[in-house]
Write a structure and sequence with these properties.
It is built from eleven helices and 14 strands. By secondary structure, it is an alpha/beta fold.
Amino acid sequence: MRTSRTVLVIGANGGIGREACLAFKRHGWQVRALVRSLPADRDGIEWIKGDAMQRADVLAAAQDADVIVHAVNPAGYRNWGGLVLPMLDNTIAAAKAVGARIVLPGTIYNFGPDAFPLLHEDSPQHPATVKGEIRAEMERRLAEASRIGVRALVLRCGDFIGPHAGNNWFGQGLVQAGKQVKVLRYPADYTHQHAWAYLPDVAETITLLLEREPELADFAAYNFGGYWLDGYTMADAVRRVTNSPNIALRRFPWWLTALFAPFMETLRELRKMRYLWKETIQLDDAKLIAFLGKRPYTPIDKALLITLKGLGCMSAP
């Protein structure tokens, strides 16, 4: 007889996947992780070597799972069109077979200008990019699956910050992982406000929602508001936590991405997301806060301190 619930995290070597594993362990879950390369440190997690593109691998790893966290993404933005939807279809098939709820860490890419500036859970999804169309299709497939018994939870977030670099603007654009912060390069006008989500908070929020799983709709969607900061506020926070008042605030060199984009897929994808730094896009999190009864956000200074140390931009104590 099982005494605790089991979660399968697909993509556990990524930023959100790794934090999800840690959060579920803290809450007493049995944690299983499906990855293509096994880590040296097991951390009390059951690591399974497999490929999210192979349906048999996903189904085998999902046996007896109560929840499947679908946190897998193609590395470096490569071949989104060919990989993202087949991987999700494999997760849906596995969840249907074992009766698990799927959790998808969502984004704002699936929304277009007609939904801006304040996104609600039921805002129309008319994305402006191919990547956004794929994200919208992911949610559509989960909603469709929920009508045939596959429960799903989507937590939509802004840009990630957290102690692992990953594919996020903060660790790859505003600062340089592994280097002391001397300049913060902001991709917009300094007065432009942007939505940020601290990865450990995202993972913790997912576990808090699942603790009340019977209260969740078969297809449940929530917005994770996180931090709503302009360039000046972000720069001031980084200066405080690094005790470096002379850190300069500069513009992100978009011209440089144009120069090298033909040779680097990551830069090509970053350029496609530039509209996120031109439009005002905020996530309305009233529904999430009402459900949880609190704001599940770590103070920004603490979040940035842990993030910068994790990225190697500050010395660990």
